[in-house]
Design a protein that fits this description.
Length: 761
């Protein structure tokens, strides 16, 4: 290109030097661009300094030609000058390079063309074609060639050869073809650690990216790459730093070929002695004291074993602490001063606090049905207010937990100084549903179902539903309405009417009632609620062999009950959580003073914790979500009521408690095996989930639980295990589980299927 540039300039000088019309005293009348097809005329004129009305200059034209060539769009440029009516007319003749519209791969067997394009950044997120409109440039093609070789090297292939050719399919378009000789894959058969005495070989191997072949670990190939070997040395050093060995020296790994496979030898040249934390100090902090920072991580203390990982962890905690107050520009740089004689390491944390960030604008996009106001009121950020990271995380969580959005993307953008724009992009899910279907369970048998529901009514966040279930042993009619932000406060007013009949194994229950509840958000992530229920409850058709505890419930009664609860929800998504926890305590009190005829109370406490295994400080990928759930219930009658009403007892077993057991089977039963219910319950659920997609999760579970009368018999808890799936649909989560009893007793089935809708816990 350099040769081409000087040739063009030389010809230009000859042309302009022989043209008696062109003199330095004349002005440019007009600049014309000729020959461009893909590059806009305005773009070319932008890089030409000769403008109409300016003095004509050969030096400026030569400079313009250089600048145009630097753009990389042209393979030839020439200029001529002719006399116009009022001055000189300059004509720039350009010949554009062809555009590379596609890249083709040949010879690639181990890596597909789609995979190569993805790794090279040639395709968009949802595109299948090549995302290319690059001018033909050998420099660009050489960079792709290097990337391909590096990609194969990373995958463990040695001797990979890459060449390319260019085919013009039109004067303005070209296709680049890369011919790949993949070479041979280098596999690691053995890894040997030498010179280590303070840290075991097993612990060192755990941090290596390079791994041995292992049938036990289902690792049938172990690729060898220079990049991984380099990273391994750094990982070994980090491991020693974590244990306080700051004088460690690791030699470059030695690779030995043996019978078509490779042995890698890592040698620890020097381990040194273990260091302890010396003086710990903080410089540049004015908002927080040194004591405030040290409280964040008690493991970083003078005299304790030095640990670089803990230093880095404290840095992250300090930055987060500043972020909680809106100082998102804060930066922390730790300085380590080593004292070899005393084997101590002073740590000086240099802190730049920066300025507090404020929200300039909140921009909402993607919402079609949902009003902006409905979204804004869930945000814990507001315009002109302080921006901080905790409020950002809380805002994302609240929007997800409305249930109205399939995806929520909230991104802050620094716009000027300490101002931040918050861009909220949502993808709405279907919130209206008409469904007709059928279901079957061991309790209700065959049931037909019809329901109409609408969430996010008129984009306000309100929801309502009408549902009907009918079968030989069940009849449900429910009418529900939830009014969000009632009285323009962060509270929900819920109203419900219902008519429900259940034919159980030994009796029939028929309930007709009305309930109302007001729950309000308090203290950022906490909610409190208070509600009232009035219900007519009729127990009839009691079987002759039913136990006395059931027969005593015969007749019609009235329940007047107050319900109160307090809860905190820190789950990132209440439908398919990945991390966070949930806690609630619910108390119900029924009595004659509440317009009822029964006196009893119930207290139920629940806690659930979710943990993404990929958050563990490990170098391996663990795409699983672990969760644990505990529930304890306590109930009793008082006053004129001698026995807890049958419909308000705890029935342990079934799809919402201990899976693998039928409804109530894991609690007290009569001589025929029919559930009697209990006034005490204790349940533990453990799950390990794998997300196939964002909408589908496979799970394995272990459940332990039991129900009793007037006592807790922990040693008598029933146990089960099983598998299941969770599917997130517009109606909400659908779950299907198959559980097996781990302590099956005589006369019991070995397993049970469970189907349900809504979150499990």
């Amino acid at each position: 290109m350099r040769k081409l540039t000087f040739t063009a300039i030389f010809l230009l000088s000859l042309l302009l030097g022989s043209n008696t019309l062109a003199t330095e005293k004349q002005l440019v009348e007009k600049v014309e661009i000729i020959g461009n097809e893909l590059v806009p005329k305005s773009t070319i004129l932008y890089y030409i300094s000769e403008k109409p009305g300016k003095p004509f200059s050969k030096e400026l034209i030569a400079k313009d030609i250089k600048n145009l060539f630097k753009l990389g769009y042209f393979e030839n440029i020439s200029v001529d000058a002719k006399k116009g009516k009022k001055g000189i007319v300059l004509r720039y003749f350009v010949k554009e390079k062809p555009i590379i519209t596609d890249v083709v791969f040949k010879g690639n067997k181990k890596l597909s063309s789609d995979k190569l394009k993805e790794e090279l950044g040639l395709t968009g997120e949802k595109e299948t074609g090549t995302k290319l409109q690059e001018p033909l440039s050998y420099k660009y093609l050489d960079s792709l060639k290097k990337k391909i070789k590096k990609l194969y090297e990373k995958k463990g292939y040695i001797g990979t050869q890459v060449h390319y050719s260019i085919e013009r399919i039109s004067p303005t378009k070209a296709v680049a073809t890369f011919i790949i000789n993949e070479g041979k894959k280098a596999n690691v058969c053995k890894i040997e650690i030498r010179g280590n005495r303070k840290i075991s070989s097993g612990d060192i191997k755990d941090v290596l990216k390079t791994k041995e072949k292992s049938i036990l670990h289902l690792r049938f190939s172990a690729p060898l790459s220079a990049e991984n070997l380099k990273q391994d040395v750094e990982n070994i050093e980090k491991l020693y730093y974590k244990e306080g060995f700051l004088d460690v020296e690791v030699e470059k790994p030695k690779v030995v070929e043996k019978k078509g496979c490779y042995e890698v030898i890592y040698t620890i040249k020097e381990e040194g002695k273990r260091y302890k934390f010396g003086k710990i100090s903080f410089v540049g902090n004015s908002l927080f004291s040194s004591k405030d920072f040290l409280k964040l991580l008690k493991s970083v203390r003078t005299g304790r074993t030095f640990n670089q990982e803990l230093v880095d962890k404290l840095v992250r905690k300090i930055i987060r602490k500043y972020g909680e107050l809106g100082y998102i520009f804060a930066n922390v740089e730790p300085e380590i001063k080593i004292h070899p004689k005393t084997h101590t390491a002073d740590v000086i944390f240099h802190i730049y606090e920066g300025n507090r960030a404020y929200v300039r604008w909140i921009n909402i996009s993607g919402n079609i049905a949902t009003r902006d106001r409905t979204i804004r009121r869930e945000l814990d950020l507001y315009e002109t207010g302080i921006f901080n990271t905790v409020r950002l995380e809380r805002s994302i969580r609240r929007l997800f937990n409305t249930g109205y959005f399939e995806n929520v993307d909230v991104k802050p953008k620094i716009v000027e100084g300490n101002k931040v724009d918050v861009n909220v992009d949502v993808k709405e899910r279907l919130t209206g549903m008409f469904s007709v279907g059928a279901g079957y369970s061991s309790v209700s048998k065959l049931v037909g179902m019809v329901s109409v529901s609408k969430g996010n009514l008129f984009g306000t966040g309100d929801s309502g539903s009408v549902s009907l279930q009918a079968g030989s042993r069940v009849f449900y009619f429910d009418l529900n309405y939830n009014h969000k932000w009632w009285l323009d406060k962060p509270q929900t007013l819920s109203l419900a009417l219902y008519n429900r009949r259940n034919d159980y194994f030994t009796y029939t229950s028929h309930k007709v009632g009305f309930s109302t509840m007001v729950d309000r958000r308090l203290w950022e992530d906490w909610r409190v609620g208070l509600g009232y229920l009035i219900e007519k409850d009729k127990i009839s058709d009691i079987a002759e062999d039913a136990p006395d505890i059931v027969k005593n419930q015969l007749g019609t009664t009235r329940i007047g009950m107050v319900t109160g609860f307090i809860s905190r929800d820190l789950r990132d998504n209440r439908f398919l959580p990945h991390k966070g926890d949930y806690f609630s305590i619910t108390t119900q009190v029924a009595g004659s003073f509440l317009a009822g005829k029964e006196d009893f109370y119930k207290i139920i406490a629940e806690y659930a914790y979710y943990f993404n295994l990929n958050d563990l400080p490990l170098d391996i990928n663990l795409p699983f979500v672990a969760s644990a759930h505990a529930k304890v219930g306590y109930a009793d009658a008082f006053g004129n009521t001698s026995t807890l009403p049958i419909d308000y007892r705890f029935y342990v077993g079934g799809d919402s408690s201990v899976r693998g057991f039928s409804w109530g089977e894991a609690g007290p039963t009569d001589s025929s095996g029919n559930p009697e219910g209990a006034n005490r319950e204790l349940i533990f659920n453990f799950e390990l989930g794998y997300d196939v997609t964002r909408m589908l999760r496979l799970i394995g579970f272990v459940d332990v639980g039991g129900g009793w009368w007037n006592e807790f018999k922990v040693g008598d808890m029933r146990k089960s295990a099983g598998v299941g799936i969770r599917v997130l649909t517009p109606m909400g989560p659908i779950r299907l589980d198959l559980g097996w009893k781990l302590d099956r007793r005589t006369g019991e089935s070995s397993s049970e299927w469970h189907f349900g809708m809504g979150s499990y816990f």
